[in-house]
Amino acid sequence: MDLRVAAYGVVTDDAGRVLLARWVEGRRVAWTMPGGGLEAGEDPELAVRRELREETGFDIEPTELLGIHSRVIPASRRVRRDDMNTPLHTLRIVYRARIIGGSLRFEKNGSTDMAAWFTLDEVAELQRVRLVDTALRMAQIL
User: Fold this and answer.
1) CATH superfamily of 2-138
2) Nearest to 107 by CA among 2, 19, 16, 21
3) What is the pLDDT at residue 78?
4) What is the DSSP string of 57-124?
5) Half-sphere exposure of residue 109, counting CA atoms within 13 Å on the CB side?
6) In whole angstroms, what is the distance from residue 1 CA to residue 85 CA?
7) What does the alpha-carbon distance between residue 138 and residue 53 come to, in Å, rounded to a whole number?
8) Of 32, 31, 34, 44, whose CA–CA distance to 4 is shortest?
9) Chain-centre distance for alpha carbon 36
10) How many Å apart are CA 26 and CA 78, to the nearest integer?
11) What was the pLDDT predicted at 76?
């Protein structure tokens, strides 16, 4: 079984909108929480800062550890065809975060291609990964 540890940020603005990134690496395009995998030896708080800067253009500060979500993805549900012989155990470290700088911009040549702000009503209508609802529940937004 493969293991992937990743860090994600729940970022909201003064209007109560949520910042999401559009994930384009999977079998379907879907909105997700901004964040991603830790590099070898990387601290999760540094990883969430790096990933949000890469995917959204914003510099953030993690303000609260919301929780860790654990999920095992069966081999047949893996994103990459060459990985479909081995299940994947994902550990997702979720932080609440606030913006301290930067400006909205889109990632180039990454697993996401854009980022945007959404109201909760708009989030409900989006094609999204399960992590969005999980993280918003952790943040007591849903």
Assistant:
1) Nucleoside Triphosphate Pyrophosphohydrolase (3.90.79.10)
2) 21
3) 82
4) SEEEEEEEEEEEEEEEE-GGG-SSGGGTTS-EEEEEEEEEEEEEEE-----SSSSEEEEEEE-HHHHH
5) 0
6) 9
7) 22
8) 44
9) 6
10) 9
11) 84
The average pLDDT across 20-43 equals: 94
Q: Where are the domains of the chain?
A: 2-138
Q: Which residues pair with 105 in a beta bridge?
A: none
Which two tokens mark 62? 């993690």
- Using one digit for the tens of pLDDT, what is the confidence trace for 56-114? 999 999 999 999 999 998 988 887 766 678 999 999 999 999 999 999 999 988 999 99
In the prediction, which pLDDT does 79 show? Answer: 75
DSSP SS3 for 44: helix
Closest CA to 94 of 52, 31, 40, 39: 52
pLDDT at 24 over 80: yes
